[in-house]
Write a structure and sequence with these properties.
alpha/beta, 238 residues, two-stranded antiparallel sheet, nine-stranded mixed beta sheet, Carbamate kinase
Length: 238
């Protein structure tokens, strides 16, 4: 078996990815698929942390556009990420993977509070750690939370699993002539406003020289291929 290129990895999965082909909620088959893909990485001995979005249940930014107060909308979005995190924890534990959910908003009855030293200790014990509830603050996306947590735990790389093969110069779903970008810099993403993460997340990654890989979650084996250093998706670095 090929050895992993990275020792500690943070994987960001959108909430929409957990919908599968449904229009809402969590697709049981999709969450089983994600658990299987993660299990392959865990078997390599990689220390793996996850951040899961909540867009399959509730999107705070979208809700704030129809007269809901932004702070309330974002709080609801953060709670949606907790639902997804607990669901993913269940799927992983069904595979025999020791998993912990740590939340930025305290809810002791359902998950552990986010404490950095505790998170690192779980990773050192080869437990999968799921960071839920974003940063715990409104106005910050789960992409920004993923970059922040990756920096805090000293992850070697941040992997963003999406529904497309990587980064394009325009939306490949609406523009058939969009061009695939194999490798780029943080500054180019910012200057060209490439829609891969919000600019706060990209700026934070740039300031801390955190490499990012954007790749297609739905292609089986992609997560482990990236972890093993294969040339998958789009690499964003300095």
């Amino acid at each position: 078996m090929t050895q992993p290129k990275y020792r500690r990895v943070l994987l960001k999965i959108s909430g929409e990815a957990l919908m599968g082909d449904q229009g809402y909620g969590i697709d049981p088959e999709m969450i089983k698929y994600v658990a299987n893909e993660i299990n392959r990485v865990v078997e390599l001995g990689v220390e793996l942390a996850l951040v899961v979005g909540g867009g399959n249940i509730f999107r705070g930014v979208a809700a704030s556009t129809y007269d809901m107060e932004r702070t309330a909308a974002d709080n609801m979005g953060m709670l949606a990420t907790v639902i997804n995190s607990i669901a993913l924890q269940g799927a992983l534990e069904n595979k025999g993977i020791d998993t912990r959910v740590l939340t930025a908003i305290s809810m002791h009855e359902v998950a552990e509070p986010y404490i950095l030293r505790r998170a690192v200790r779980h990773l050192e014990k080869k437990r999968v750690v799921i960071f839920a509830a974003g940063t715990g603050n409104p106005y910050f996306t789960t992409d920004t939370a993923a970059v922040l947590r990756a920096q805090e735990i000293h992850a070697d790389i941040l992997l963003k699993a999406t529904k497309v093969n990587g980064l394009y110069d325009s939306d490949p779903v609406t523009n058939s002539n969009s061009k695939f970008i194999k490798e780029t810099s943080y500054m180019e993403v910012i200057s060209k406003q490439l829609n891969v993460m919000d600019m706060t997340a990209i700026s934070l990654a740039m300031d801390n020289k955190l490499p990012l890989v954007i790749f297609n979650l739905k292609q089986e084996g992609n997560i482990i291929k990236v972890v093993q250093g294969e040339d998958i998706g789009t690499l964003i670095k300095k």
